[in-house]
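Q: C-alpha cells for this one, please.
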Amino acid sequence: MTRASTSRAGIWLQQATHWFTNLSPDFGNAAKLNSSLLKRYDAIVSMSEPVLFMLALRKRRLQDANLVLILIGADKRVERSLFPFVTKGMLHWLFKRLAAIVVIGEGERDYLLGRELIPAERVHLVQFGVDASFWTPVSRTTTGDYILSMGNDDGRDYETLLQAIGPRPLRLHTARKLPPGTLPPNVIYTTGDWKGQALSDSAVRDLYRGSHFVVTPLKESAQPQGQSVTLQAMACGKAVILSETRGLWSRTLMRHMENCYLVPAGDVPALRKAIDLMAADPALCARLGKSARASVEEHFSSNLMAERIGAILLNMPRNSQSP
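A: Here is the predicted structure, written as C-alpha cells:
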C-alpha cells in the first residue's frame, strides 16, 4: 500500500466515523514515523487508535514489531460515531492486528469481549495506578472544612452533585461547563485543566489533604472514569464517595464501606445520604481513608501498573532486528 493510499485511508476514517476529537494530527504523525527506527523495537505501545491504525497499515514494513493499545472508552467510540456500524468494523479490523490490548477497567474488558471485538487471550486487565510516593496523607489526622470534587472528563455528573450537596461547603474544580443557574454560596468553583496547569500537582495534593472527604460523581458508562482523582484522594488518605457505574474498574478491589463509599450513578437521594453520613461521622471518614491508602499501596500504585504492563510486553515474541 502506498503512502498516498494510507493517508487517504486515515483521512477517510477520520471524516467518515468521527472517532476522535482534536486527534487529527495523530494520523499524519504516525504516517511520518520512520520505519527503520520502528523496526528496532519489539513492541510499539500507544494510547491512540489513530497512531496504531496507521502503523497497522504499514505492518509489513514493521515486520515483527508487536502493536499494543492501552484502550480507554471503546464504548464511546461506537456510541458517539455518526456511523456506529462502520466504526465498530474499523475497530474490529484494528484489534485483529494488535498483539494485545491493555484495559484499565473490568467494564471496558467486558465490553470488548461481549461484542467479540478481540479474542479474550489478547485482552489484559491492568489496574490503573497513581504515584503513591507523591500522593500521601499528612502526618496528622485532619478532618477538613470542605467537601472536594474535581475532574474534567465528560463522564462527570456535577449536576447530580449540586442537587445533592445541600448547604454543605463544596470546593469544585473543573474545566467543564456547569449546569445552568447560579451556584449556591456554599460552592466555591474554580476552573482549569491539566494541560493549562491551573493548579500544580502540589496544590491539588493540598486540596485533597485539606478536604473533609472527596466526591467523584459519574454518569453511567462502561468506560472506567474518575480513576485519577479517586485514587489520588485515596492515596492521600481521604474517604471517597464514588458513583458505581458499569465501568467501575474493579468490583473486588473497590469495596463499599471498606475502602470507599459507592452510590448508584445519577441517584440524587443516595448521594445526598452518603454526603450526610460522611459529614456527620468523622470516624467513618478516617477509617475509610486509612483503608483507601492501604488499597492504593497494595493494588493501585503507578509502580505496580508499570510492572504489569512490562510483564505483558516481556512475554511477547522478540523482534529479530531489535538492538
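A few notes: Residues 148 and 214 are 5 Å apart (CA to CA). The beta strands are 43-46, 66-71, 100-103, 123-125, 147-150, 170-173, 187-190, 213-216, 240-244, 261-264.
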